Model the fold of this input.
Amino acid sequence: MEYSAEELTEARRQIGSTLHKLQRAVETLRAKPDPEKYRSQITLAVRRIKALEIANHLIEAELERGSVEEKH
Done:
């Protein structure tokens, strides 16, 4: 599937926003009095962070490569 540079840039922006929110959520959960109680939520959030970081990296690589098609 082909995406325009504009679409990829917007996706990267949205991913960045979601990453920030997830990182804050992990910090909050780890700071709770009994963080072990939230282990599954922390694990899930950390895995999502990693997946979104990979997606962001791939988008950046695609934008740098400049091979995206401009849609008219």
Q: What stands out?
A: The radius of gyration is 16 Å.
